[in-house]
Amino acid sequence: MDVERKSGRSFVRARAALVAGSLGLLLAVGGCGASGDSMDSGAKAADGKAAPREGFADGDGGAAASAAPEEQADGKAAGKKAAPKPGGTHVIRTATLSVEVKSVPKAAAAARGVAEGAGGLVASENTERLDDTYETSHLVLRVPQERFQEVLRELAGSGKLLSRTSNAKDVTDQVVDVESRIATQRASVARVRELMDQAEKISDVVALEGELSSRQSDLESLLAQQASLKDRTSLATITLDLTPPDAPGDDGSKDEDPGFLDALGGGWDAFVTMLRWIAVAFGAAFPFLLTAALAVVVWRVLRKRKAARRAAPAVTAAPAGKDGASAP
């Protein structure tokens, strides 16, 4: 009996220990599952802040959905502020080239081809013939801004470059200002037209017509400025002067080392020039000399006549005193 009781007690203790271990294992598994659920719920909540779940229209879900467009709008506004202007900078580019070429007609034709090949045009061309052999050309070319430097290099390499000047002027502020003024002026014109539609008195209509004409004129002037700026900023201007060599095939040795004939010719030219200037001076002074000579002749004649008149009484008084007595 004692043995059976002892074995029964040990069995009960073993069973109780087994049950206690099973309960502890179940509690541990349950705790891990709860912590996992809490972590999953926290992750879902965090994801819900970034992107709200579908199916919520009211409550917290609705607030998150309404807040999302505002955040997107703020993000777009910040992106607009940070992004550059769609049109970029507006620059007016001009350049002037003077090139010495062997054949001006061929170089002018090549320049026209370069400008047209780049998508530009020849704004003006002026060709002047120096003599029967040589001529010069003055061309004004308009080329796209993106091909400006390329065209300059090709034109400068067509011959001997004598001079080159380039200029760039940033007119971005002016372009933006004109666009803003155009928008304001268009709104002003629209308001005046609305007032004209609502006007009932003839005097009001006449006054509004005058105001509309003035504002429409200002708008057309602004549109003309905008077109001019667009043309000058989209197409660069290149002024090209083509000239022939001063003395083709001549090394200039005669000018550096003049000979006896050159000196003789120069002396003869100087002598002829001197005689010419003397003749010119004499021709200019001849009327004055002639007048002075006539005056001298007249003075001498008058002087002789006066002396003769003074000598006449003395000659007539000499015969009356031959016998030494004077008449009574």
Automatic annotation (TrEMBL):
Keywords: Lipoprotein, Membrane, Transmembrane, Transmembrane helix. Residues 90-300 form the DUF4349 domain. InterPro entries: DUF4349. The chain crosses the membrane at residues 277-302. Residues 46-56 have a biased composition (Basic and acidic residues). Residues 35-89 are annotated as: Disordered. This is Lipoprotein. It comes from Streptomyces globisporus.
